[in-house]
Write a structure and sequence with these properties.
Layout lengths: L1 H23 L5 E11 L2 E10 L6 E13 L2 E11 L5 E9 L2 E6 L5 E13 L2 E10 L8 E3 L1 H4 L3 E8 L31
Parallel strand pairs: 1-10, 2-9, 3-8
Antiparallel strand pairs: 1-2, 1-7, 3-4, 3-9, 4-5, 6-7, 7-8
Length: about 190
């Protein structure tokens, strides 16, 4: 009878360890906390806090003075990124990017709002990626960058109890190119057209 209890205990422990093993068994994914440090390829020396939100489909970034315009018959967006780094310093970066699409987002007040989506280069966990971001005034939020499911899929498993498990160590040069290799399965950041 004692051997049967021992065997049942071992089987129970193995069963309980399955979720942890599944999370670490993803070969091309990193384990990340719900808060991480990231940097944009346009501002490689200005790392910022990012909230990893599996409840959000699309990523979002703090922007102001958002203007849509047409260039060569295609929709573009002119905007200013306003990003507070880890030391509390704020940098403003004017950019222009092609508008990929517009999305309807439920605002904090519950009303729908229409936001443009652009692609930006991002350093996350030592790898360069291209992420799609909605442009929104996030000054009332705690974090200037939110990374949603579209970005996280295939890249990271999020531990909701942990923070800062990764480092944005891409060694991006002033030309926007990485000095290191890219992360397996990652999309390389597009060069800045401006």
């Amino acid at each position: 009878m004692s051997a049967l209890r021992w065997l049942a205990g071992i089987v129970g422990l193995l069963w309980l360890s399955l979720p942890c093993a599944a999370a670490t068994a993803e070969p091309n994914k990193v384990m990340a906390g719900w808060l991480e440090t990231v940097s944009l390829t346009d501002l490689p020396d200005h790392p910022v806090k990012a909230k990893l939100d599996t409840g959000a489909k699309t990523s979002s970034i703090n922007a102001r003075n958002i203007e849509s315009f047409t260039r060569d018959g295609k929709p573009w967006v002119r905007f200013e990124l306003v990003l507070k780094n880890l030391q509390g310093q704020i940098r403003t970066l004017p950019l222009e990017r092609p508008r990929l699409r517009s999305v309807l987002i439920k605002e904090r007040d519950g009303k729908p709002g229409k936001r443009p989506v652009v692609a930006l280069g991002l350093c996350f966990s030592g790898g360069l990626h291209e992420a799609e971001f909605t442009l929104a005034d996030r000054t009332e939020f705690n974090y200037p960058v939110l990374l949603g499911r579209r970005f996280l899929a295939g890249i990271a498993v999020v531990d909701p109890q942990a923070t800062y498990l990764t480092q944005p160590d891409c060694h991006v040069t002033s030309s926007g190119k990485a000095a290191r290799g890219k992360t397996p399965g990652a999309k390389a950041a597009a060069p800045d057209p401006s």
